[in-house]
Structure formats: structure tokens, C-alpha cells
Amino acid sequence: MYDVYEIRKQFPMLREQKYMQGKPLVFLDNASTTFKPQCVIDAVVKYYSEVTANSHRGDYDLCYNMDVEIEKTRKVIAKFVNCDFKEVVFTSGDTMSLNLIAYSLGRKILKKGDEVVLSYAEHSSDILPWYQVCNEVGAEVKLIPLSEKGELLPENLDKVMSNKTKIVSIANVGNVLAYTANIKGLTAVAHKYGAYMVVDGAQSVPHNKTDFKDWDIDFLTFSAHKMCGPTGIGCMIGKYSILEMMDPFIVGGGNNVTFNTNQQVDYLEPPVKFEAGTLNLAGIMGFKAAVEFIDSIGIENIHKHDQELFDYAIEKLSQLDNVIIYNKEARGGVITFNVKDVFAQDEATLLNSKGIAVRSGQHCAKILNGFLKTPATCRMSTYLYTTKEEIDALVNALKEGGNILDAYFN
Ligand SMILES: Cc1ncc(COP(=O)(O)O)c(C=O)c1O
Fold it and tell me: Phi/psi at 387 (nearest 5 deg)?
């Protein structure tokens, strides 16, 4: 039985009532980042207070133990998303992972006239690295049109593909409309044209079952902090044969076998080839604790909880005449909305004055505006500890309406 109240007890941010603007805090910005359970905090503290050492660099126990810890974490992550543990590359997070792919793969294979396919719903972290590399080599970015509802459909991908397309990079779940894409279907289309398939899993890995092997994708990226883990750590997962062919994007200590005065370098095998410099070791220990924590609840149960909250929230919000919902059928952890005739940032400020944290603006998806036909929206997002009472608090606040001046003078 999914007991959200028991789960909440494990989170210091939720164990005792927190306040914002003097009101009980209702945190509905989980797509941005999530709270951390005690086990994750303990794992991070353990690194600093009990097992501090660098990795790959010494012949003493503390250092060796850290190497063991890193490999154990790779295995826990690999099992969680169903890939080989040697395919897990640690990065500082999703953004860094996408940059790594764009620079290490994109720069290697893209030539003038080639195409990279993205969608209108992408986060800037899955657009700007591609713009950089495409501008550099003279390649072009093409965008997949969304369906009327805002979904990413294989048939629409097919329409923009050509034999010039070398890479397709899309989010499994977008951070605004949040429909879950048919990744297997989309991958089949990308591969039909011989293109690599990159999946930005920032919003999906924390909420949905991920199957790297079964989906047959070439790359997967995600951040620990959106799934109860620490900030500053994440990973890039890539098919091993592709990782072998790619050049490292960041080079330095820890990723080479040898180099000489003739400027010849012999790099280590993947994944360490891509992990030059001291890794975020405390983060890696926290990442492992986070994945084990999610596993202990069950990703399917978390997904079901998201859907129940989504259905509950949509039912309540749909009863409010003044609320416009942009993704009524997404059935995930995100609801994007506006209050009629109120600018999104004003609404979020007003909600803040009532202790409710939601995100407003363009949510880093700046080319989605044409589809949404509005310059800004509010976004509420849930996670495994969100309750129906928190949804009620949002609905009641929206029901009450209110003047933006309330935010400043109450
Ligand atoms: C879909 C998507 N991609 C990429 C990112 C970037 O993640 P990070 O800031 O953890 O690198 C986010 C963050 O919100 C996101 O929602």
C-alpha cells in the first residue's frame, strides 16, 4: 500500500511543517527539483565525515573503497534503467550530459548540410548545445511539430526526417506539456534513417519506468536532483560501441593511460574516458542512495501516485471557470495552467504569498510559446511525497482568486 504520509516522514523538509511567507509551505515545484530523504542526506554526510578520499588515484584503502563505491553506484543505476554498468558516465547533471553528447558525438559526426532533429517542446538544455555545435559545423536544426494536444508522435518525426538527419534528440517527458512520448516508436523512425537517438530523461526517469535496452535508444540523460538525489550529479548513458567511438569532451586527470611530448594521448576506456577530473563523490554516494530509495518504493507505484494526483487535480481545476489548463490529458507529474486575465508571474507571486510554490514563466522551453499561444504559464508539479491536501490548497487558492496587490500587502 502506498502510504504517502509514511513516505513524507523520511524527508526533513516535510517532517516538520515549513513556512513560506508565514503560511504552511505547499511545495508544487518538483519538476524543478525535489526534496531529499534522510538516507540521501546521510550518504552525502557519510562521504564527508567518514570516507573522504579521491578516486582512481591512490593505493590505500580509503581511495580503493571510493572506487568500489563508484562502481556500485554505476551498477545500481544500470539496473534501474536497464543498461550495462559500463555505459553509465557520471556528469554534473542532465545539462552537462546533453552538452557532452553534442560536443563529443555531434562534433565528431556532423558535417555541413547535416541535420539534427529536436522538438518544439524541448528544454533549453536540449536545444542550445545542438545550436552551438550545428552553428560551428554548418549543420541545421529541424523541429518536430507537436500534435494538436502537444504530443510527440512518430509520424510527425517521420515528416521531418531525411537522409541528412544524423541525430534526433528529444525529451521522453517534456517539462511543460509533460506527455509521455512513445520512445520505442520514435526510436524506430530515427533508426530507419540511420540517425542516433538521444533521450532527455530529466523529467521521465524520476517518474516512469525506463528501459534503455528495450527502447533501443543510443543515449539517455538525467539528473539526480530531480529524483530525491543531490544537486551537481547526474549521468549520460550511451551504447558502449558508440561511447568507444566518441572523443572525450573534457580531458585531464583520471581519463588517460598515458601521453607524451609529441602531444599523443592514450585515453582510458569508457566510461572513465569521459570522467576527467575529480568526480562529485559525495554526490555519487547520494545518487546511489536516491535510486535505492526510489527502488524501495517502486517506480511503478510512483508513476501511479503521479497519475492519481494528476487526475484528482485535473478534476478539481476543471471546475474552476477562471483556470485554463494546457495539458489536460498528460497524466504525469506536471500541470501547466494560467488564471484568465492574470499574468503567470503575478499568479505565482500571489500563490507564493499563500505559501504555495509553483513555477511561472517559460520554463526554459522558449520555442513552445507559439504552440501555447501565451507568453508565460504557471506550472505545478508533484512527486512521490505530494498529497491531495496540497492539491486542495492550490485549488482553494485559485478559487479564492485575489488581487496581485494581496501578494505585497497581506
Ligand atoms: C526536460 C528537461 N531537460 C533538461 C533539464 C535540465 O536539467 P538540469 O538543470 O538538472 O541539468 C530540465 C530541468 O528542468 C528538464 O526539465
Answer: -110, 165
CB 81 within 8 A of CB 278: no
Number of domains in the chain: 2
Is 63 designated active site? no
Answer yes or no: do 238 and 140 share one domain.
yes
Pair 122, 245 in one domain: yes
Q: Residue 69 falls within a domain, yes or no?
A: yes
Q: Which atom of ligand 1 is nearest to the CA of 234?
A: 10
Q: Which of 134, 228, 235, 364 is catalytic?
A: 364
Q: Considering the entire predicted model, what is its pTM?
A: 0.96
Cell numbers 510512483: residue: 302
Among 30, 94, 172, name the best residue to mutate to test ligand 1's pocket (greatest count of ligand atoms within 8 A of Cβ): 94
Cell of 174: 517534456
From ligand 1's centre to the CA of 95, what distance in Å? 6
Query: Do 247 and 330 have their domain in common?
Result: no
Domain membership of residue 35 (yes or no) is no
Q: How far apart are CA 228 and CA 128, in angstroms?
A: 26
Is residue 208 a contact partner of residue 202, using CB atoms and an 8 Å limit? no
Ligand 1 centre distance from Cα of residue 1 (Å): 31
Interval 206-260: pLDDT, tens: 999 999 999 999 999 999 999 999 999 999 999 999 999 999 999 999 999 999 9
Let me know whether 185 and 74 are in one domain. yes
Spatial distance between the Cα atoms of 182 and 193, rounded to a whole number of angstroms: 18
Supply the CATH number for residue 258's domain: 3.40.640.10
Q: How far apart are CA 339 and CA 336, in angstroms?
A: 11
The reply to whether 36 falls in a domain is no
Pocket of ligand 1 (CB under 6 A): 93-95, 123, 125-126, 171, 175, 200, 202-203, 223
